[in-house]
Design a protein that fits this description.
This protein has about 575 residues and is of the alpha+beta class. The chain folds into 3 domains: about 10-225, Beta-Lactamase; about 365-530, no CATH class; about 535-580, no CATH class. It contains 13 helices and 22 strands. The protein has a 7-stranded antiparallel beta sheet, sandwiched between helices. A hairpin with a 5-residue loop joins β17 and β18. α1 (about 10-30) packs antiparallel against α6. GO terms for molecular function: 5-oxoprolinase (ATP-hydrolyzing) activity.
Amino acid sequence: MSSKSVDLITLDIIRDSLLAIGEEMFIAVARTSKSPIIYECLDFASGITDKNGRLLTQGNGACGFLGMLTSLVHSVIEKYTKKENLKEGDLIICNDPYGGGGSHLQDVGLVLPVFIDGELFGYCVNKCHWSELGGKDPGYAVDSSEIYQEGLQFPCLKLFEEGKINETIVEIIRSNVRLPDMSIGDMWAQISGLRTGQKRLNEICAKYGTQTVDQAIERLIQSSAEFSRSQVGMLPDGVYTARGMMDKDILGNGPFPIQVKVTIEGDQMYVDFTGSAPQTKGPINVAYDGLVSAIRSIFLACTDSSQNVNDGVFENLHVKAEKGSIFNAVRPAAVSCYYESMQYAQDLVWQAMEPIVEKGKLTAGHFITVGAYSISGTHSVTGETFVDVGPTLGGWGAGYDRDGDSAQFCTGDGETYNIPAEVLEAKFGYRVTEYALNTTDAGAGEHRGGYGIILGHEALNEGMTFSGTYGRFEYPAWGFDGGKEGSPSGFDFLLKDGTYVPQRGTGSKIEMKKGDIARMVTGTGGGYGNPFARPAEKVAMDVKNEYVTIDAAEKIYGVLLDSETFSVLGITEKRKKFLEKVS
């Protein structure tokens, strides 16, 4: 029977049911996990694939995982179908960056084969960031030089076999992580999410029949592939390139030249990173599956980001990078800060495509970095060991018709959230001294870039360690069409003895004493259009809101303001000449 024989009403119901299953799996993990980075930040993803490993649906969360669920399942299929058949009740754990994981070891994937009437139907899969997974440093390492320093590795192992848990693996985890109850609790949360998906898939197949559901899946994938081809087909054929520099790693290597060539041929898109820097000793490399995942996100932004995502969407996307390069790292390259090169790869494609896509789909450059940090020590009240890890907010680039968004996560984090200050203080026992917008004069334009943040953490006892990594320290967000570049991201430190440690980026690691303050300062997005074209009334409002200084209003925007009322007094000669030229 052809897949086209499924009637449209049934097709819509099955499509929406699959989407609902993905969301329910996601919610199950969020509500049962132990780590704030999972239940507050939502730094994870859940999804379903068919028996061939094709993604059918994915719950919201870290969109940087968009291609990694598929690669996880493919690695399971590759390993187990060659030697043995998977059995009902099996459940696989995997975090191998080079074998389906795609990111770093802390992102632990679980894969549950789903059997219907004794036959393999598909897979439920999720991938969650565990706060602690062993390794040389709590949380994650910003200065590792090989993967063996970064934590436990699970190369597609059976955590459950025919329904029976492998206690040996659990004990290995318990004995090698600093917070075993938290890590193992997160593992069980993932299992609950997978079992939720398994239950719902059984229900939908029981209601409509496995054959009908299979036919609907084929129809949905075909439909998505056809729509994706039509979207790429609307882009002008040609070769579009971008070059850039990526910040050095914490070990002192770099900076790194990177480049991309995007080719549009009919309804196909080819993305080629050949010529980019070789992998480096520091931990900012990304494996190929992580690269593909990043490019899937920008591919959606260039076509139609509102569509329901399955693997059919990406059939006409082809990604290439030289093996052993910073964008296609091989073992034993360090990858704990993989997200930095992943974000830079995405940003290159962004730059290459911005001039040719429909206006409004892409903005000027954004602050790009995940801005990941790790704070560890002893809770100032309870005396318990803690590890706090998380991403940081920053400024997005301006669009052709609007200012950039302020205090948002980077593209790789997507549908994730910040951990509230109250949770940070209660859970981890340090003090949040400051949580404010980083208002700088950078990112000026007809539409200005969004602002980053300043987030301060004060140690309330001895022995707290702060570490983190930021990109865009040396190479701020790019402006577009006359817009100015944004400001850099980095860290600075205010020590109790009055010493100020200036802002640094790429990577930072410091032992803190009681009263020391570590501050994260994230960058402004790039501006769009010439600053002289920004309406004077908007400049005045920016000054009134303390986003722009009165001095910058004159020097950058060419607007003269009353220093007390902020009313517009006039414009500079430079602004006047610009307006006459473009009128």
